[in-house]
Automatic annotation (TrEMBL):
Keywords: Manganese, Metal-binding, Secreted, Signal. Residues 53-201 form the Cupin type-1 domain. This is Cupin type-1 domain-containing protein. Belongs to the germin family. Gene3D superfamilies: Jelly Rolls. The lineage of its organism: Eukaryota, Fungi, Dikarya, Ascomycota, Pezizomycotina.
Length: 231
């Protein structure tokens, strides 16, 4: 039993570890953070390539089911010290970003294509804010607010996301909640539900995006809009 719990905990840790941005050049970022002057910083970034980031060439740039591509201190060292992350959010048909928070940043999101529904709760007692974003429209997810979004259409949706930290962090609610012991999670949910079993059904953080509801996917597939994939 203990072994089983240990194994499940390991699986949870492994899937979270896979999803976080790879720290591309921690030594360079450390030097950029302690540089005395901006001219010292410029010397640390001598090449034009040091100032260039191609979202479309990153591993998480996918629409099957989707992905969050961050240009931040981990993935693009030149961002270090500017207090910003820029991200591109790709959502295939029906795909979603599951409920999550950014512990260290407020998040402004602008739709570029598609139709995306968003939900946000700022804290306990606050109302749920929901928006439908079409191209050129934006909403705000304040720092540490719980938020989620879903592509309402059968075409790809793309959004640009700006965050006011070069290390915003992301905490997925379901993955985190169900990783706590059964005597916590099972009690919160009530009814003696086996929370460890539910953890096994929560999709890994993965690319940051999950496939959407089966009914939506089936409807889009009927219209010939779904690309073949392995859900
Ligand atoms: C700058 O680019 C050149 C040529 O691509 C490379 O040899 C050199 O290592 C780069 N310098 C740094 C500091 O990245
Ligand atoms: C809750 O479960 C955990 C993990 O099985 C255990 O370590 C802890 O002692 C339990 N707490 C209580 C109050 O029973």
């Amino acid at each position: 039993m203990l072994l089983r719990v240990g194994f499940l905990a390991l699986v949870a840790v492994a899937s979270v570890a896979w999803a976080v941005d790879t720290d591309k050049n921690p030594d360079l970022v450390a030097k950029l953070r302690v540089a005395n002057t901006n001219l010292d910083r410029m010397k640390l970034l001598p090449n034009d390539t040091d100032w260039f980031f191609d979202f479309t060439k990153q591993d998480k740039y996918t629409f099957s089911p989707g992905g969050v591509v961050n240009a931040n201190a981990a993935s693009f060292p030149a961002t270090a010290g500017h207090g910003m992350t820029m991200a591109i959010l790709n959502l295939g048909p029906c795909s979603m970003l599951p409920p999550h928070i950014h512990p260290r940043a407020t998040n402004f999101v602008v739709a570029i294509s598609g139709t995306t529904q968003t939900y946000m709760v700022a804290e306990n007692g606050a109302r749920t804010v929901t928006e439908t974003l079409r191209p050129g429209q934006m909403t705000i997810f304040p720092q540490a607010s719980v938020h989620t979004m879903m592509n309402m259409g059968c075409d790809n949706a793309q959004l640009v996301s700006a965050l006011n930290s070069d290390d915003s962090g992301t905490t997925n609610l379901a993955n985190t909640f169900f990783s706590f012991p059964q005597n916590i999670t099972g009690t919160v949910i009530g009814g003696g539900l086996n929370a460890q079993d539910i953890l096994g059904r929560v999709p890994a953080v993965g690319t940051g995006s999950n496939a959407g509801p089966q009914a939506c996917i089936a409807a889009c597939a009927k219209k010939g809009k779904m690309v073949k994939r392995e859900w």
